Amino acid sequence: MDYSKLKIPTHVAFIVDGNGRWATEKGKIRSEGHKQGFLNLKKLTAYIFSKNIKYISAYLFSTENFKRSEKEVSFIMNLLTNQLKDILNFCHENQIKAFFSGRKENLSKNVLKAMKEIEDETKKYKNRIFNICFNYGGHTEIIDATKKIVKDVQNGNLDINTLDENIFNKYLYQDLPPVDLMIRTSGEQRLSNFMLWQNSYAEFYFPKTYFPDFDENEFDKAILEYTKRDRRFGGIDYEN
Ligand code: IPE
Ligand code: IPE
Ligand code: MG
Questions:
Q1: In this predicted model, what pLDDT tens digit does every residue of 155-209 receive, in sequence order?
Q2: For the chain, the helix, strand and coil percentages under 3-state DSSP, each to the nearest 5
Q3: Minimal-distance CA residue to ligand 2 atom 12
Q4: In this predicted model, what pLDDT tens digit does every residue of 86-135 receive, in sequence order?
Q5: Is the C-alpha dihedral spanning 29, 18, 114, 127 positive or negative?
Q6: 54 alpha carbon to ligand 1 midpoint, in Å?
Q7: Catalytic: 17?
Q8: What structural domains does the chain harbor?
Q9: Given the residues 2, 40, 52, 65, the one annotated as active site
């Protein structure tokens, strides 16, 4: 689809959901769904960045997902380490700067090493920003920011009277623009602790499609829906 005449979002965020159900309904094990979801994420992000959308966030593992079986958790963790070369190639080919948002606690040395390598190798790219939320929670992000703020106030590095939304944003895991379009696949209609601060005025879109099947065509539909939304941000357009 031609995006050149459309009012496109600056920041698109995905809650990658339905991998497990995609697999189960095909008689496969859940891990197959995660693998397919991962392959689709690469294809989809390359497409979205090619449309001049600058920021993509993707929620891949929540702080709460540790409640899942050890087998499922370790499969998801291993995806990152086993596919490291492939992820790096993908970022270089598409000139993507990738980084991770979330807590480092509970992640293995190997996973942390893979994350650092991806961040170090891709930080030279400036135009396509891929924020990967991994061991991420919206509550923990706000708590972690608050702790850093309190520390800076105590150290005398921050005057509490100057604290506003822009400064608060800088204390989050990443200093990103607000989310414009938030897509959660699989039909679930909730945030599940995803980017609570950044989603304050996002337009929400909840397709029924499971993430492994959410392709370019599905994304085009999401963008067309987005262009129809009237984003008022609390104001009123008195002309209409
Ligand atoms: C999303 O798919 C990936 C993660 C949350 C890790 P799910 O694994 O949640 O898939 P469903 O919701 O069980 O189908
Ligand atoms: C949210 O999906 C977390 C991620 C997509 C990483 P879940 O599948 O874990 O969320 P719930 O349990 O359905 O709310
Ligand atoms: Mg789910």
A1: 999 999 999 999 999 999 999 999 999 999 999 999 999 999 999 999 999 999 9
A2: 50, 15, 40
A3: 192
A4: 999 999 999 999 999 999 999 999 999 999 999 999 999 999 999 999 99
A5: positive
A6: 26
A7: yes
A8: 11-138+179-228 (3.40.1180.10)
A9: 65
